[in-house]
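sanity check this record:
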Amino acid sequence: MQKRTFFPCLLFLICISCSSESDDKILSAENFITSFVVKNTGIEYKATIGTSSISADLPSEFSLESVKLEVEISQGAKIDPAPSSITSLLNPVVFTVTAENGSKREYTLDIERQLYSQNFITSFELRKGDFSFSPNVGSAVIEGTVPSHILLEDIVLEIEISDGATIEPAPESITSITGTFIFVVTAENGETNEYSVDIIRELSSENAILGISAKADFNDIVVNKVSEGKFFQRLPSFMQTDNISLDIEISDFATILPNPIDINDYTSPVVYKVIAENGEESSYEIGFEVMDIDFEVRCSESNASKWFGGDDRDNPDFEHGPYDRNVGTGQILQLSEDLNPDTFGVLFDRGFAYYQGGTYYDQDLEVQLDIRDENGTILGTTSVIVPPTYRGGWVYFDLTSTKVYMKANRPYFYTWHLVNGGELGVNTGSIGYNESIAGEECGQTGFSGQSRVAFETNLEEEWDLWYEHPWHFNYSLSGKK
């Protein structure tokens, strides 16, 4: 029998070499925030880290918005939410740190910012239109004076205050200043500061009479300033010096004595005193006379006659039918002196007759005169009755009832037409001159106008029916200046 020999040591070694490495790695249980830094606009603060909280007391100028966090945690751990996702610290944040072995730790972020204590008005500007005023801002008073022409109404206040502070009342709610008032500025930490605002308008020194007009039936008569401190005007005859109502315009903020409303008798000149807002006074004398100098002009040079009145012709070549159109005549009058006219005359070359057959109209006719200003507005209207026996010559209008007052160097339009001329169908001729005429009164522009029965137009009511005519028409004018 063969004998077997065992080698125990060799067997042990073989067993060791055949064993596998099956032992598990030990995972870290570390789940700490080891460093926490808050950054904003280049400034950084390192927070204090507790076992479950992170705290910091930041200065007031450090904004809790648009922040950047730099956080370090235990090796191998993870943090949620990611610090890079946090940009605002206005609301609480809880971070969870998870270790390698899955154990978790929560950190509550407790960041506070110191509240501002400043409660100042740092800038104050008052604006009105193009005007701007920036008074000095003291510790408790804002005061100043604006020029007299700047009324403290419809104003805008532009005010700047300390960071974080509020102001009451709201500057945009202040649109006028009538006296002293208070602004209260409240700091972020609740501390208040009061400013008394005392801005006033400088008292005006203006004490002038800027204009005077005498009230008349048709329009106001401007009273001329003839020298420093003296106004004088000649009035039309329909106004009396013992019964005049004046409208006197004076400087802003000034007063006048006596009150013009209480004065009507200017038989003798009246002296008024104008008192400025600051008390300075000036005196003005106002006097009147009634126009009493005779005036008369007659423009009678002639070489032409223009259709005036209605038309009874039945001609298919005309744009109008019989008994349809009515043709009027007019003339511009512009004088170098004021005038109170009393009579105006026009010249026709024949009596009113029908064109067909040439028979005269055997009844009274009415010719109307309208006096207009430079805008075509009627100032006065009058008429005259032409008898059946009229066979041409001057026809005169009495202007006294119109109370017209012609101001110097202003154009007035005198226009005349046959009343119901279209329906009547009779006509005559307005005499004029179709060449240039020298002279102030007679060389001015003529006018013509035409209405239509078919169109229901009217020469009195519709100024656009009138147009310039190249002739100078004969007229006469008399009155007082």
